[in-house]
Each structure stands twice: as structure tokens, then as C-alpha cells.
Predict the structure of Hydrogenase maturation factor HypA.
Amino acid sequence: MHELAITQAILSIVLEAAEAAGARRVTAVELTVGALTGYVDDSIRFYFERLSEGTLAEGALLRIRREPGEGRCRACGGAFPVEPPLLPACPLCGSPDIWITGGNRCLVERIEVEDGDPHPGGEGHPQRQ
């Protein structure tokens, strides 16, 4: 159910940006989703499709790029990949003084829209936000 809340936030960001740009419709949205967020791509797609019905984003292509989990040790400075379940200590030196440096975020990277000014053919001009 975490995906419902994050997808509502994603759609809000997308619609706000599209409206600010005077878009006629959103054609595609690109997301970066960290491996450590726990979000399931298929669930995000499902909720995006349902929540976007009747909005400028209805029918938009949703592209999701996965960002791998990464960590760094404050004691030895080593960097290492992190996958759930999280490690309680650095795999290089054993120190518990570690922090997550990647894979813990969800970002709207790009929004593609058709603008609101139709050209002579009646179709909007594709734009990228």
C-alpha cells in the first residue's frame, strides 16, 4: 500500500508541472526508484494508470529506472552495494558506522508533454520538462 501514497505524490508533481507548462496532455513520465525504497514497479504502474484516469496524464507512458542500493562506511571510507535486508555493519571492516548513499529515493526525472498550442495539423508540439 506504500505505492498508493507515493504514486499519488508522483501524479501530483506531474500534473502540477504539466499545468504550469500549459500542456495539453502528458505523454510520458520517467521515474528513478531506489532498490531500497521497497516500492514495487508493477504496483506503481497499476496505481498510476488508475489515478491518472480523467487527468492530463491519462494514457501516459510510465518509464521506471531502478537505482541500486549503495552504502559507505564512515570508519574505513569503503563503498559497497546494499540490498535488502540491510547490513548491520560494513562488509569491508565490520564497523557499524555506515550510511546509505544510494537507492533510497524516488524521483520524477522527466515529464514529456504535448503543449497546448496546436500547430496547423491540430496536434500539440512534443516538449520535455
Notes: The mean pLDDT is 91.
